[in-house]
Amino acid sequence: MDFKQEYMQKKYDAIPSYEEVKLAMNSELTDEQIKAAGLIIKQAVFYNLCAAHIDLIKFTPNQANSMLRLLKAKGYSDCKIMMNGNTPDCLTVQLNTSNLRSKE
């Protein structure tokens, strides 16, 4: 592959595939969304905050519900989606140790 073909391939790679779009439109969380949520929770713990607030502006309603289910499955029992009308706005995760389920 020559330089021009490689350059054009990189340009074309900027367009997401149909499968990526289909996953995003359904309830599948993207790697970026999962990493961002993990980082937000780690930062809240680092700063000794009582809660982490995950911005849901780039989430579909199904993805917001998937993130809520994922966090509850991970042991964060006290988390809820804050709505702005019919749109998910923010997911609040309480980090008090009394709210975390034991993994025993």
In short:
With 104 residues, the chain is of the alpha+beta class.
What keyword list fits this structure?
single chain; alpha+beta; three-stranded antiparallel sheet; 3 strands
Q: Secondary-structure blueprint of this entry?
A:
Layout: H1 3-13, H2 18-25, H3 31-46, E1 51-55, H4 61-73, E2 79-84, E3 87-94
Antiparallel strand pairs: 1-3, 2-3
What does it look like?
The chain has 104 residues and is of the alpha+beta class. It has four helices and three strands, in the order H-H-H-E-H-E-E. A three-stranded antiparallel β-sheet has the order 1-3-2. A hairpin with a 2-residue loop joins strand 2 and strand 3. The longest helix has 16 residues, at 31-46.
User: Order of strands across the widest beta sheet?
Assistant: 1-3-2
**Radius of gyration, whole Å:** 18 Å
Q: What share of the residues lie within helices?
A: 40-55%
User: Stretches where pLDDT falls below 50 for ≥5 residues?
Assistant: none
Largest sheet: 3 strands, antiparallel
End-to-end distance, in Å?
55 Å
Q: What percent strand?
A: 15-25%
Using the alpha-carbon principal axes, give the shape. elongated
Q: Summarize the helix and strand pattern as letters.
A: HHHEHEE
| Average of pLDDT | 85
Specify the structural class. Answer: alpha+beta
Q: Tell how many strands the DSSP assignment holds.
A: 3
Tally of helical runs: 4
